Amino acid sequence: MINNNLKKVTIIDYHLGNLFSVKQACDTVGINAIISSKAEDIENADALILPGVGAFIEAMDNLADLNLIETIKKAAAEKKPIFGICLGLQLLFTKSEEFGTGEGLDLVPGTIRKFPADLDDRKVKVPQIAWNSIYEFEKKWSDTPLMDVVNNEFMYFVHSYYVDPSNDMDILTKTNYDGIEYCSAISKDNIFATQFHPEKSTLKGLSIYKNWATLNNLI
Amino acid sequence: MLSKRIIPCLDVKDGRTVKGVNFIDLKDAGDPVELAWQYAQQGADELVFLDITATHERRKTMIEMVKSVARQLNIPFTIGGGITTVQDAEALLNAGADKISINSAAVRNPELIEELAKNFGVQFVVVAVDTKLVEGRNMVHLNGGRLITELETENWIRKAESLGAGEILLTSMDHDGTKQGFDCGLLNTITQMINIPVIASGGAGKVEHFIEVFEKTGVDAALAASVFHFGEIPIPDLKQKLKYHNIPVRL
């Protein structure tokens, strides 16, 4: 029997990154998700997932070419739940230092910065490709999609840039990469986003999808 | 806490894993999905599938395998073997692979590294290098060590990094299969020389070899095949022992 009341989630496809795994994670936890590049699928969705891996500028260019920037901003203004992952987290911010300064979606105030190649006279490997732990900052994780994740749990990271939010209150988790402490997840009103890949972080990661969906009445 | 990765490597032929695997409780030791699941349950941080299929149908069977692995597996995995074009890589990405590993194709056409990095990001591109000591110099070899090239390993790795490799998978042919330990000398030289993660491969025979490679070199991950497949080194034991030696691992 088809449940017509089932909430619809659109995974935004702007041609960067591994969307298959995101869709699989949605299927596994029971989220009714489609992958789409169409504005109408964003307008008709009850919630959005913005994934992606790769370069910020190219991602924003692709979103612009697909005429999706205003559509996403409008959905955010309507308070639709938005879940950003990896590059999708970074796109939500104001601007990036990557290749000069690139403009982001500006839904969360802050800047995207590159990991420094050197720190205290020793080199830092970029990209970070690793399991690294996430820990609490000021906000507690109860009542967030991280409710089933314990402090210092390992998550899988792949990135060369990190977000530097202007407001500490938007920070949900922090992570330390080789001496650099940075924000690895945020939550702000209807927006939740992670630098790590929950869909690649075992069942702990999948619980984040499930709890995001549950908290937003999507399943 | 940034952790060191443990990576089992599986050889795949016609969509099935080969080289006997003797796990207890495996219904079908040749099924890549079941094996991948088992390894993930044991705490493997990542998996590498190396396609050794020689038939024309290889691409289709590989894509199908990648899709079924991606459906079941909640840890990252890399696909290597026979990737020579951007189109090959894109098909694997769309099927759910997190990274691809290129070896001979990169040596024959170094621009491929650049093209792949530009199209999919550096994090997607692992350059695998097989090296062997010849008259005191580390030389890049192809075809599993059978074919020597004119490239010195250090120079080639530097070039691969500059072209956009996101990670180096370094296999010492002198150590591979010996079970006498990783080539810590060379791995140390390479990790000091470059600014991207390095995966050590070749020579793992016992737990002490993993401890040694993480203590003596700057590698980010260690890869092995037979010691994991035959249950000689159970991954949970390995990780416990690494932790006991203050090597950061995900438990």
Fraction of residues in helix of chain A: 10-25%
**DSSP E strands of chain B, number:** 11
In what range is the share of β-strand residues of chain B? 15-25%
**Strand arrangement, major sheet of chain A:** 2-1-3-4-15-14-13-10-11
Helix content of chain B: 25-40%
Number of DSSP strand runs of chain A: 15
Please indicate the count of domains of chain A.
Answer: 1
Number of helices of chain A: 6
What string, H for helix and E for strand, traces the elements of chain A in order?
EHEHEHHEHEEEEEEEEEEEH
- At the fold tier of CATH, the topology name of chain B is TIM Barrel
Mean pLDDT of chain A: 94
Radius of gyration of chain B: 17 Å
Keywords (chain B): Amino-acid biosynthesis, Cytoplasm, Histidine biosynthesis, Lyase
GO molecular function, one term (chain B): lyase activity
Organism (chain B): Pedobacter caeni
Catalytic activity (chain B): 5-[(5-phospho-1-deoxy-D-ribulos-1-ylimino)methylamino]-1-(5-phospho-beta-D-ribosyl)imidazole-4-carboxamide + L-glutamine = D-erythro-1-(imidazol-4-yl)glycerol 3-phosphate + 5-amino-1-(5-phospho-beta-D-ribosyl)imidazole-4-carboxamide + L-glutamate + H(+)
SSE arrangement:
The complex is a heterodimer of chains A (219) and B (251).
Chain A: E1 9-12, H1 19-29, E2 33-36, H2 39-43, E3 47-50, H3 56-65, H4 69-77, E4 82-85, H5 87-91, E5 93-96, E6 102-103, E7 108-114, E8 118-119, E9 122-123, E10 128-136, E11 153-159, E12 161-165, E13 171-177, E14 180-188, E15 191-194, H6 202-215
Helix pairs in contact in A: 1-6
Chain B: E1 5-13, E2 16-17, H1 32-42, E3 47-51, H2 58-72, E4 77-80, H3 86-95, E5 99-102, H4 104-108, H5 111-120, E6 125-134, E7 137-142, E8 147-152, H6 153-163, E9 167-172, H7 184-193, E10 198-201, H8 207-216, E11 221-224, H9 226-229, H10 235-244
Parallel strand pairs in B: 1-3, 1-11, 3-4, 4-5, 5-6, 6-9, 9-10, 10-11
Antiparallel strand pairs in B: 1-2, 6-7, 7-8
Helix pairs in contact in B: 1-2, 2-3
GO molecular function (chain A): glutaminase activity; imidazoleglycerol-phosphate synthase activity; lyase activity
Subcellular location (chain A): Cytoplasm
EC number (chain A): 4.3.2.10, 3.5.1.2
